[in-house]
Design a protein that fits this description.
Blueprint lengths: L2 E3 L2 E3 L9 H8 L18 E4 L2 E4 L12 E3 L12 H8 L9 H17 L18 H7 L10 H12 L5
Parallel strand pairs: 1-5
Antiparallel strand pairs: 1-2, 3-4, 3-5
Length: 168
């Protein structure tokens, strides 16, 4: 079975050792997904696999046979940016932009986790059905995505604007 990437069917690479990140960047020429540490520590390579955030540098492409992969290029369309992409622009949630695609994909996956009621390490009440996304909860959930140039406040503001309750 092929992988579906941003709505298009893609054949699996012949070499089963090819990472999903290398398939996206080197074979499909989707340069939005970044190769940061190539060890799963920075989050720059985060994409969505069937709606869940994954680190594409740690995933073999063959593991995603028959699944749907969405990269930052697949979020918006020709008519408009995804609401989170627009919020990143509005809140200056990027400076160099290197981590931005991974941050955006991670935040979309994080929002799905919240909708499912998946708690984090800092979730105070594990018995609630709805987890409020405040700054503490957001920072914990996004801690796997690093920003080296200091756009953290803009990133947090953009994500809260789209998915949460702005906490002062």
């Amino acid at each position: 079975m092929p992988i579906t990437v941003n709505g298009s069917s893609v054949s699996l690479p012949h070499d089963p050792r090819v990472s999903l990140l290398d398939l996206l960047r080197e074979q499909l020429h989707l340069s939005g997904t970044k190769k940061g540490c190539n060890q799963g520590a920075c989050g720059a390579c985060t994409v969505l696999a069937d709606g869940e955030r994954i680190l594409s540098c740690l995933a073999l492409a063959v593991q995603y046979d028959g699944r749907e992969i969405i990269t930052v290029e697949g979020l918006g369309d020709d008519a408009a940016l995804h609401p989170l992409q627009a919020a990143f622009v509005e809140h200056d949630g990027f400076q160099c932009g290197y981590c931005t695609p991974g941050q955006i994909c991670s935040a979309i996956g994080m929002a799905a986790e919240l909708r499912r009621g998946t708690p984090s390490h800092v979730t105070h009440d594990l018995s609630v059905d709805t987890i409020a996304l405040d700054r503490e909860e957001l920072r914990e959930r996004m801690s796997g995505n690093l920003c080296r140039c200091g756009a953290h406040n803009g990133i947090v503001d953009a994500i809260l604007d789209v998915y949460g309750e702005a906490a002062e």
